[in-house]
Amino acid sequence: MRPQHWLYTIPLRLRSLLRRRQVEQELNEELEFHLQQKIEEGIVHGLSPKEAHYAAMRAMDGLELRKEEMRDMRRIRWLTDFFDDARYAVRTLRRTSGLTAFVVITLALGIGMTSGTFSIVDALIFRPYPVPHPSGVLTLASTTHDSNLDGFSYREYLDIREKTTSYDGVIANGDMQAVSFSGEPGATPRVRGGMMVSGNYFHVLGVEPRLGRGFREDEDQVPGRDAVVVLGPDFWQHEFASDPAVLGRTVRLNGREFTVIGVAPETFSGMLVFGHPDFYLPLAMARVFSTNFQKNFFEDRDDRELSVRARLKPGTTLEQAQNELAVLAKNFEREYPKVNHSRGAAVYTQFEARTREDLNWKFGVIFVILALAVLLVACTNVAGLLLSRARARTREIAVRLAIGAGRFRLIRLLLTESLMLASSGGLVGVAIGYGVVEWFQSFQNVIFMTDLPFSIPFRMDKRALLASLALSALSALLCGLAPALESTRLDLVNALKSADVDVPGRKRLWGRNVLVVAQVSASLMLLTASFLMVRGFQNTLREGTSFTKDHLLMVSFDPRLVQYNAAQTQQFYKLLAERVREAPGVESEALTQNIPLGTDDFDSIAFVPEGLEMPRDRENFNSTMDTVDEGYFATMGIPILHGRGFLASDTADAPRVAVVNEQFAKHYWPGGDAVGKHIRLESSAGTLVEILGVAQTIKYQSIFQRPIDFVYVPLAQHPIARMTLMLRSSGDPLQLVPSVRDVVRGLDPNLPMLHSMAYEDFYRNQAVNGPRIAMKLVGSMGVVGLLLAIAGLYGLVAYNVSRRTREIGIRIALGAASSDVLRLVMGKGLALVGMGTVIGLAMGFGLEQLMNSMLFNAGGVDIVAYVIVVPSLFLVTVLAAYLPARRATRIAPTQALRYE
Amino acid sequence: MSKPSDLVQGTLDLLLLKILALEPRNGWAISQRLKQISGDVLHVSDGSLYPALHKLEQEGWITAEWKPSENNRRAKFYSLTRLGRGHLEQEAANWSRLSSAISQVVQLEEA
Asked: Which of A493, A450, A386, A469 is nearest to A176 (CA)?
């Protein structure tokens, strides 16, 4: 229609829509007028008033049909029909408000849990980077046998940038790390999270600064020359109250002066999943934050700290980029055999990178599967209820069909009803989903007990809401379609004769049977899965956690924050340990690079076990490691099973030594004793290290970890900047804090004490409560599923049986014994449950295998879960079948026959 | 009364529009006028009249107003819109082209 048309027609359409009754009335009036005129004309032509009336009516017959035609013309038919149906549906639903409420809540639980858990998976894997055209941003990684997502070194990054042609820009960034920050001269420095990035970082990503500018290419050229910093948006808001005058200000980072040149926009919270950096600095300033005393960041090709990303050039395929990088990696291998031996490289999309980066996504997927199972149970519940209700409306439906409603029209009517239910369920479900997400968010402080700006990214954002919408629509279809189809397939004559028809034909009951089976299997899978997870978690918690947790104070230090070099750092720790040992209340002292179940990355050590022949394709093996001092094993209560721990005599001048854990010893010297054996570092020609002792295997990085190889090296022989002091106290560990502060102040008043807390609190929050939250979620899903299943199963089976009351009455009237009838009726129910059980067990088994492979070593099939769950469901079904059946046999046959 | 001829829907629209172009009328008056002008040749049945009027209104070619009629009863009076006037001219031109073509064929001498 041309625009001028709209001026006339849109008001008309709107009027037809909003003022329907008036429009209808007007039409009637118009026709009435016409009728009157016709009658008058008849009278004028000599007919009597009565004759004239009849003549006029006859002439105008068929007008009702015409009215329908005209209604169609108004072209809003589908909309008005929908409103009509919706209004009717609301009326019907209101009449059975209890049932409606139950259905809505059921659906809401299913939808809410699914969308809530979806938001988790979304945040962990799918959410696109907060930059323009995020799909073009690829992740480049260095790969080895043991790891497929290692970083690159500075030199390697430069080579990649120069020598590849597949990309429109190659950027690099370090991890977010602790940086001491002070905004005003003379202010006490605080620890914030900074990230070093390449000069082209903002430009390649396409991030326009809110204020000022990003880095220039030339600012990242000369190491140490350009001390410039770009602030993160949240930090700018909190720290500088969004003051635009921050540009050009001087701030001190790790004691060095930096100039603020820009602020990142609010839309860019960083490329990390968990956390947003407070500020960004150029890679060239890396010396200020040098992370490793052993290595030179700018020169050593094996100081691999940089995450590299790149934008794919338009016209280049991922495959081409991958091949190019693989070739480059081979060149590195050839040119630098010592450091790049058997190292490849790979190019990953966002999805691939995210799923390799962090294993939490596996939890997320399991949650989503379980939530979907809850939704399935909910939907089958609702479908069963709707089906039963449709039965009761048989007469109404029959009448509608009889006066000419199309079958499709009726199906639309019934579907509108389930749509109403599903959308109400969806709305409430969104609220529930929001609650789930908020619940997770509330643990932010619990899980991230650090000073750095980590945060939980789960949100009910647009994408999660869209998911909820889709789920609601899907549920509506799922729940409503089968009942709608079945209840409109009526034999009209019979249906009109009696209000409740139930002719047990085979096809007729098929729908309900499927529902029972589906419900049993879904809820069984749900139950066994959650049962297994909870029990598995409990088992896992008990293993490898017998080290000391109580009466332990932990305080972290990072002398890089005050620009110490290696020698100064070693001196500091030596004096710290000596003096703190003398403090009152201190029973023993330890220094360690990583605390058990800590959140920092663990270093790894490359070695060749002596006396073992290396396979041809490998130069060395890798193991996770920790750097500790001589007090560590005693203070942490980690028993040395063979040999000894470290002593003060294991100094820098003494022969190199190490302590391994039991897993390591069993791995490389099975059946023998590892004590006295040697390993060589890096390669078979490397430094010789003697193994002094074998320590008990504990959990190192995560409570869900399988036992891994582990190596301890002494601090005196392996200087590390960032260490944590652990103090065993006789009383409350926090009481030791002032004494520690005094000692530290005596050594260097500018050195901050980081994260002082009781290790017990840390352990409980970090290692236990975190996973426990996950377990609670799973457990609650299991319980919800169980409750829904019980309610639905009972209702469904009981209803099925009560439908057969008439049949039961007939059988008894014909002489059948009660027991025979009971057996007949219950047999059917039990058969269905049996089928559902088999399917559910199979699915549960499959899910369990999946969980075992992904997470923990639950050690095979857990019988207890099945032993408890299966009989419970059986019991419920038996009860559900038995009670109504018994009632039916009790009723006098004549009454049963009369039953309608 | 002579037998009313069958009217094709398109031509009915044309006739209604033309009648309304002369003067705004209600539905009853339109059918009377049509009978009168055509010398009783063209009758439009009530079942066709109102749907046709409805359609013309929905298309935006005519617009309606409730007014008292001659005998003081409330009736719905239709009138032509500017858009309708344009459509009328177009349809009238089409009709004359069509009818002259048909006449030409029909008036051919038979061999």
From this structure: A450
ipTM of this predicted structure: 0.81
Q: Which domains does chain B have, with CATH numbers?
A: 9-106 (1.10.10.10)
Which of A19, A30, A45, A73 is the best substitution to test chain B (most B C-beta atoms within 10 A)?
A30
Contact B47 A66 (CB under 8 A): yes
Tell if the CB–CB gap between B74 and A29 is shorter than 8 Å: yes
Helix locations, A403-505, DSSP H: 407-441, 444-447, 462-487, 492-497
pLDDT value, residue B1:
33
Chain A residues touching B1 at Cβ < 8 A: none
Across the interface, do B51 and A73 touch by the CB < 8 Å criterion? yes
Q: Does residue B3 sit at the A interface (CB-CB below 8 Å)? A: no
The residues in A 563-582 lying below 8 A from B, measured between CB atoms, are: none
A243 near B CB under 8 A: no
Among candidate residues A368, A359, A349, the one with its CA nearest the CA of residue A120: A368
Q: Distance, in angstroms, between B28 CA and closest chain A CA?
A: 6
State how far the alpha carbon of A533 is from the alpha carbons of A64, A530, A753, in Å.
66, 5, 39
Euclidean distance between CA atoms A14 and A582, whole angstroms: 87
Ranges of chain A with pLDDT below 70:
1-9, 17, 61-63, 65, 72-77, 290-293, 358-359, 444-451, 490-512, 797-803, 854-862, 864-865, 888, 891-900
- Tens-digit pLDDT profile for residues A805-828: 777 777 877 887 878 877 777 777
Task: Of B42, B52, B46, B47, give the one whose Cα is nearest residue B9.
Answer: B52
